[in-house]
Design goal:
The protein is an all-alpha fold and 415 residues long. The chain has a single domain, classed as Up-down Bundle (Na+/H+ antiporter like fold), CATH 1.20.1530.20. It is built from 19 helices and no strands. α1 runs antiparallel to α3, α16 runs antiparallel to α17 and α16 packs parallel to α19. The chain is globular. This is Cation/H+ exchanger transmembrane domain-containing protein. InterPro entries: Cation/H_exchanger_TM, CPA2_transporter, Na+/solute_symporter_sf. Its main location: membrane. It is found in: Membrane. It holds the Pfam family Na_H_Exchanger.
Length: 415
């Protein structure tokens, strides 16, 4: 069988099988499609197929096939984070609620702190926890970021499935997740600038990062807004949006940041009036056709070993840290703001959602050499667990927590 035929058959399996499984009501009730796709990617890797049929695994994933998978994976994840950036509506966040900053700060800062503390222990207790370029400070910060992640796009999908996206509970959760996303990418950008191998040095890389951000916000964003006006703006913005994502990714990679960061920023600066059309055109094909290649690439790097004490320890402790940090970090400020316990706890449960965003962040850290294979695999497993939790628990909490009020004006843009 030729390399092209092999790749096409594996791609067909990845596109069709997770969707078919997700169509089963019992599966759909507990897991979003992203989780099923992640598990399918893991199943093709050394964790399952590599153990059950090592000869078949080696025959499928030849160097030629891996090069193609990695190339398509890069395009898929770039477009995904580009769409994720368009879900982040800063204008809507300014309009909605004065209590949001306290909720967002708690839901990001507490798990970040717990993750940092756990990261110190993991670095000392787990052999090979640090990647080849992972000194202790950057490992601890990277590990902490992974504990603090909330995936806005997957959360929006879960809320839609539960019929909660238009409620005050759903809109508050989306707004807090959007602020979490913004904080996540700022901290990740600083971390990548500190460890960049661009040849510029740390100080110059930080200065280039600041200049790059100023250029994107001060020049590219208003230029895009101008180009979106007038007849044919929708068709024009499809090409310009994709080109902006590619240019931002290339420039971010060139100065030592990860190309994924560039894609997210490109999405965040898209004109609000053009976002709905861009998301409608780009997201379905990206999620259905291209992202499975990213899941495959991630699965090939994931080695889940249930018999490994190090793997189990990191997975269980990381899961406990993110659940405790997210629930307490948002529920306590919500209670102080006068919300009911049911409302506060439902928000905390929703903030567990890790989804694909966690896999993206983990891939960035792993490929940058900041975390080792065991930690990478354990945190992938944690991401799956923490993405399954919200759907099941929110159904129970929502009966008491949801207030049947219309969403505030403009709030729905964050979805």
């Amino acid at each position: 069988m030729s390399a092209k035929l092999t790749l096409l058959l594996v791609a067909l399996l990845l596109v069709l099988l997770p969707w078919a499984l997700w169509r089963i009501a019992a599966v759909r009730a507990v897991a979003p499609l992203a989780v099923v796709q992640i598990l399918a990617g893991i199943a093709l890797g050394p964790s399952l197929l590599g153990r059950l049929a090592p000869e078949l695994h080696a025959a499928l994933f030849t160097p030629t096939a891996l090069a193609a998978v990695n190339g398509l994976s890069a395009i898929g994840v770039l477009l995904f984070v580009f769409v994720s950036g368009m879900h982040l509506d800063i204008g809507a966040l300014r309009r909605d609620g004065r209590g949001l900053p306290a909720l967002a700060l708690g839901s990001f800062a507490l798990p970040l702190a717990l993750g940092a503390g756990l990261g110190v222990w993991v670095a000392a207790a787990v052999p090979g926890a640090l990647g080849p370029r992972g000194g202790l400070p950057v490992f601890v910060l990277g590990f902490a970021i992974c504990i603090a992640v909330t995936a806005l796009p997957v959360l929006a999908a879960i809320l839609k499935e539960l019929g909660l996206i238009g409620t005050r509970l759903g809109q508050t959760a989306l707004a807090v997740a959007a602020l979490n996303d913004a904080a996540l990418w700022v901290v990740l950008a600083v971390l990548l600038a500190l460890v960049a191998e661009s040849g510029f040095g740390v100080g110059a890389t930080l200065a280039l990062t600041a200049g790059w951000a100023a250029l994107m916000l001060g020049a590219v964003r208003p230029l895009l807004a101008l180009m979106a006006r007038g007849p044919g703006g929708e068709a024009r913005m499809l090409t310009l949006g994709a080109a902006t994502a590619l240019a931002a990714a290339a420039s971010a990679e060139a100065i030592g940041l990860d190309f994924i960061l560039g894609g997210f920023v490109a999405g965040a600066i898209m004109p609000p009036g053009a976002r709905a059309a861009l998301i409608a055109k780009i997201e379905p094909v990206t999620v259905t056709v291209l992202l499975p290649f990213f899941f495959m690439a991630s699965g090939l790097a994931t080695a889940i070993d249930p018999a490994s004490g190090a793997f189990l320890s990191v997975m269980l402790l990381a899961t406990a840290a993110t659940i405790l940090g997210k629930v307490a970090g948002i529920a306590l400020p919500a209670r102080r703001a006068g919300e009911s316990w049911a409302f506060a706890l439902a928000l905390g449960v929703m903030m567990q959602t890790k989804g694909l965003m966690e896999v993206v962040v983990l891939t960035v850290l792993h490929q940058a050499g900041l975390i080792g294979g065991t930690v990478f695999s354990a945190l992938i497993a944690m991401a799956v667990i923490c993405t399954v939790i919200p759907g099941a628990l929110t159904r129970a909490l929502a009966r008491r927590a949801v207030q049947s009020l219309p969403a505030k004006s403009g709030a729905s843009a964050a979805s």
